[in-house]
Write a structure and sequence with these properties.
The complex is a heterodimer of chains A (about 100) and B (about 400). Chain A is of the alpha/beta class. Chain A has helices spanning about 25-35, 55-70, 80-90; strands at about 1-10, 10-20, 40-45, 50-55, 75-80, 100. The longest helix of chain A has 17 residues, at about 55-70. Chain A starts with a strand and ends with a strand. Chain B folds into two domains: about 5-160, 3-Layer(aba) Sandwich (Rossmann fold); about 175-405, 4-Layer Sandwich (Phosphatase 2c, domain 1), CATH 3.60.40.10. In chain B, the strands form three sheets. Chain B has a five-stranded parallel sheet, with helices on both faces. In chain B, strand 4 (about 105-110), helix 5 and strand 5 (about 125-130) form a beta-alpha-beta unit. In chain B, helix 3 packs parallel to helix 4. Classes of the chains: A alpha/beta (about 100), B alpha/beta (about 400).
């Protein structure tokens, strides 16, 4: 997984690129820490460049949601594509997460 | 076992020099040189420093004999010797599995880099330049013995972990239906079953089961816990124990998944979940009732319609993420000659998710092309052969395949 972040006003946007796998857990936890330590009130995970995700990767979104609740920022998942979008639909993640097309 | 290979309790946090560096002094050191004077000098340096397990050999040939019978922990050898020189000695020590990891310190007066390179190429671990100074000799001896000791400790630790994993793997396999249990069900119900399971890295997060609910109904499920390895495997034990405990009644597929979901929500940390497919086959009604908790796109074939395999694409919440999750029952006809093909997502994600051997549609078409209407084992074999042919490397996730064929009804 590659991550590109931008902070604009109080919005933290992270482009998650390529793949989200079991091995990305450490990097993702660091990203969450970075978000919580910023003054951001809203975080957007932009998935337009994310080509695939495994079950651990989907679990990371739930960890992010938990962190968002604890640290009082909101989480939006934006622009999932292809395989990633199919898995989010299959697991009804749209009922748990705020997902924007 | 060598003097260095004693039993121990490995704690990687303990600095090496606090883990009994005295052991190094008990190491067996073989000195090979055709010069008595040089052998005696090296012997004296080592004894003065506390190394007492020493043996001598006059040339490479005699040295090899000592290596075979005495199993030294370190060899100090000259290069130019009668009978068998130091280069050939190095090569022979390295080519024998019993001695290939013994450090060899080569004394050399050859200062040309080509000769030094040749010594390393033959298998020397390190070089000591003649004339030998006791400080340099003892320093290098200590370094290489401690290095060897550390490697032995790590190897022992690795063996220990490997044995533990073997035991855990056997235990995990015992959670899956045994062959005789499957044969018993095949005798009781008009079915033929085949299954395949392979953990990706020793232990895995897949589990499946099939069991009779009554004389007419049979339940089958397949689950995949998020993540890999020990953590995912422990979750399969959790699930198995809970199901075996019998506190959850099986009224229908969806309410059973809802019950499992509540249990897993209580025990899972945030971020862990499981996907699961649960089907209940009613042989009297010729139906398959099923519910899915984000299971991958399973395949079903209606034997009477003979329209080929169909993809089950009904969505559902993964288990363990939300206590409020509800699940839906779906119903399909499942008459004689129908087939249910369950699999974990490794099948459609190998060698990788973007370019799998089997996309979902390709898997469906492959099943259609290879289903011979008689043998679930044969179609599984065909799937696995195709997977192995195109992607011979092991899948990066645990792989489970279960095929249930409803054969013609018995009179």
């Amino acid at each position: 997984m590659r991550v590109e972040t931008t902070i604009n006003a109080d919005i933290f946007e992270a482009m998650l690129i390529d793949q989200m796998l079991f091995s990305d857990h450490g990097a993702f936890r660091s990203l969450l820490k970075e978000i919580s330590q910023s003054d951001a009130k809203k975080c957007i995970f932009n998935l337009s460049g994310l080509k695939s995700i495994d079950s651990s990767g989907l679990g990371m979104f739930m960890i992010a949601l938990d962190e968002a609740r604890k640290s009082e920022w909101t989480l939006t998942i934006k622009s999932p594509q292809g395989h990633v979008k199919s898995l989010l639909v299959l697991g009804r993640f749209d009922k748990l997460l705020n997902i924007e097309a | 076992m060598s003097a260095l290979g004693q039993s121990f309790v490995f704690d990687p946090r303990t600095p090496f020099d606090e883990r009994g560096a005295g052991d190094v002094k008990e190491a067996r050191i073989l000195i090979i040189d055709d010069s008595v004077a040089v052998r005696r000098a090296i012997d004296a340096y080592l004894r003065t420093d506390g190394f007492l397990n020493l043996a001598h050999a006059r040339d490479g040939a005699e040295g090899l004999q000592v290596v075979e019978t005495w199993h030294p922990d370190l060899i100090i050898t000259d290069l130019t010797m009668p009978n068998l020189d130091g280069f050939e000695l190095c090569r022979r020590v390295r080519s024998d599995a019993e001695s290939s990891d013994i450090p060899i310190l080569v004394q050399t007066g050859m200062n040309k880099s080509v000769h030094r390179a040749e010594a390393f190429s033959a298998g020397a671990t390190d070089l000591i330049t003649k004339p030998i100074s006791s400080g340099e000799l003892l320093g290098r001896v200590r370094v290489h013995l401690e290095h060897r000791k550390l490697i032995e400790r790590l190897s022992e630790f690795q063996r220990h972990i490997s044995q533990e994993l073997d035991q855990a793997r056997a235990m995990q396999r015992s959670l899956l239906p045994a062959d005789d249990a499957m044969h018993h069900l095949e005798a009781r119900f008009p079915i033929a079953l085949a299954s395949y399971y392979e953990a990706s890295i020793g232990l895995g997060g897949d589990i499946w089961d099939v069991r009779a609910l009554d004389d007419n109904r049979l339940m089958i499920f397949s689950a995949d816990f998020s993540g890999h390895g020990v953590g995912a495997a422990l979750n399969t034990f959790r699930l198995h124990s809970f199901i075996l405990g019998g506190s959850l009644r099986v009224d229908d597929a969806a309410s059973w998944l809802a019950g499992l979901n509540r249990f897993l929500c209580d025990v899972f940390p945030v971020g862990q979940f499981a996907t699961m497919f649960c089907g209940i086959i009613d042989f009297a009604a010729s139906t398959l009732q099923y519910a899915s908790a984000a299971a991958p796109w399973q395949m079903v074939r209606d034997g009477e319609a003979d329209g080929g395999f169909e993809i089950i694409a009904d969505p559902g919440f993964p288990l363990g993420l939300s206590r409020e999750a509800t699940y839906e029952n779906h119903m399909r006809r499942f008459g004689p000659d129908s087939v249910l093909f369950l699999y974990s997502d490794a099948l459609i994600e190998t060698p990788d998710m973007l370019n799998p051997v089997f996309s979902i549609e390709r898997l469906r078409a492959f099943l259609d092309a290879h289903w011979d209407k008689t043998s679930p084992a044969a179609i599984q074999r065909a799937v696995l052969e195709e997977l192995n042919r195109v992607a011979p490397e092991k899948p990066s996730d645990d792989l489970t395949i279960v095929t249930l064929h409803r054969v013609g009804d018995r009179p």
